[in-house]
Design a protein that fits this description.
The chain is of the alpha+beta class and about 400 residues long. About 35% of the residues lie in helices and about 30% in strands. It folds into three domains: about 80 residues, Elongation Factor Tu (Ef-tu), domain 3 (Beta Barrel), CATH 2.40.30.130; about 140 residues, Threonyl-trna Synthetase, Chain A, domain 2 (Threonyl-tRNA Synthetase, Chain A, domain 2), CATH 3.30.980.10; about 100 residues, Diaminopimelate Epimerase, Chain A, domain 1, CATH 3.10.310.40. The protein binds zinc ion.
Length: about 400
């Protein structure tokens, strides 16, 4: 096969074709089959390989090695065997939409800022493009608008193979120094770029270009891009989520973030009030207690800090020599042991051992978590601390 003369170049819209097997060998994931011609695009230039079938065999990968295109299949073929190839067209057309969009954005950004596209990754989810300069989100939105206007203009995309002389006078983007046949993809008004991938015939088929994120990357920025059906799919998910939020908050679709913000402010205010009430409750409870050597008290829902404040109040009001507090937490029970006069270290260790707990601290303050019923915890604390 001549370079860049394969069926996927001659007719990028070819979905089914007939060919003859020229070689077949065992491969890592089945068999590797080469054909006298193929519509299957092999992974390259950042574009993933096509999938599909050859007769009844599944084609799960296509790669060019030693200048031969090898189709990874799940069954063996005989040399000379006639095959009918069928592409997974949804996958291939998606790659064409993404790849053309991936040329349009950097082309427009290059025109306006002169920045180069220094990295490109087309995955199953999105396109990542790295640039060697910095621009803002507002800049990006303006470039995105221009790209979409170029889509709506529905211009034909031109593929050409200029000779060495023509190439010299042609201004085009390229990721590396090229030799031999150079394939130039021209998107009128947007971009001229050397590329070996498959593209849609007219810009309108890209459907839509949507930039979804812009972040700093090395000396420049990284843009995440969705084109065509992926942009539509993303819009569906965003709408579903935002509609659900708007129903939950009884807010209009375009006012959900303001509604969440006021909800957060309301929650913060409730937390402040709850904290104030807890402090008052602990102070009153401490006052109401009759002094004893050991005070074991259950306080569900209190944070570690609140238990500590309560323990300090009890000790400073001389309500106990030893304070043991526990309360239901997210997983099991949290506990706190405090004393100004008694070393609690051994008791803490014994408690962890007996009730499958974890924790530690200082001789006068031990904190941790234990497993068990409130009754078990209370009786174990009584047993371990009552005689100290
Ligand atoms: Zn390309």
């Amino acid at each position: 096969m001549d370079e860049m003369k394969e069926l996927f170049y001659r007719d990028p819209y070819c979905r089914e074709f007939d060919a003859v097997v020229t070689a077949c060998r065992p491969g890592k994931n089945g068999f590797e089959v080469s054909l006298d011609d193929t519509a299957f695009y092999p992974e390259g230039g950042g574009q993933p390989a096509d999938h599909g079938t050859l007769n009844d065999a599944v084609v799960s990968d296509v790669r060019k090695k030693e200048d031969v295109i090898w189709h990874t299949t799940d069954r063996e073929f005989a040399v000379g065997e006639k095959v009918h190839g069928v592409l997974d067209w949804q996958r291939r057309f998606d790659h064409m939409q993404q790849h053309t969009g991936e040329h349009m954005m950097p082309g427009i950004i290059h025109q306006h800022f002169g920045f180069e596209n220094v990295g490109f990754h087309l995955s199953e989810e999105n396109i990542l493009i790295d640039f060697d300069g910095v621009f803002t989100w507002e800049d990006l939105m303006a470039m995105e608008q221009e790209a979409n206007e170029a889509i709506w203009a529905n211009k034909p995309i031109q593929i050409s193979f200029p000779d060495a002389e023509e190439l010299k006078s042609l201004e085009y983007r390229s990721k590396k120094e090229l030799s031999g046949v150079v394939r130039i993809v021209t998107i009128p008004g947007c971009d001229v770029c050397a590329c070996c991938g498959t593209h849609v015939a007219r810009t309108g088929e890209v459907g839509m270009i949507k930039c979804v994120s812009l972040e700093k990357h090395k000396e420049g920025v990284r843009v995440t891009l969705l084109c065509g059906s992926r942009a539509l799919q993303d819009y569906r998910v965003q709408l579903r989520e935002n509609t659900a939020i708007s129903h939950l908050l009884s807010a209009k679709l375009f006012e959900t973030s303001a509604s969440v913000q006021s909800l957060q402010e309301h929650e913060a205010e409730l937390r402040r009030q709850l904290n104030d009430l807890r402090q008052k409750y602990f102070a009153l409870k401490a006052e109401s207690l009759t002094p004893a050597h050991l005070q074991i008290l259950q306080e569900d829902g209190a944070s570690g800090q609140e238990l500590k404040d309560f323990g300090n109040a009890l000790l400073s009001q001389n309500k106990a020599e030893i304070v043991a507090l526990f309360g239901r937490g997210a997983s099991g029970y949290t506990y706190l042991l405090m004393s100004n006069t008694v070393n609690l270290r051994d008791a803490g260790k014994a408690l962890n051992q007996r009730l499958n707990g974890r924790g530690g601290g200082k001789p006068e303050l031990i904190q941790g978590t234990v497993q068990g019923s409130p009754e078990e915890i209370r009786s174990t604390l009584q047993e371990l601390l009552g005689s100290l």
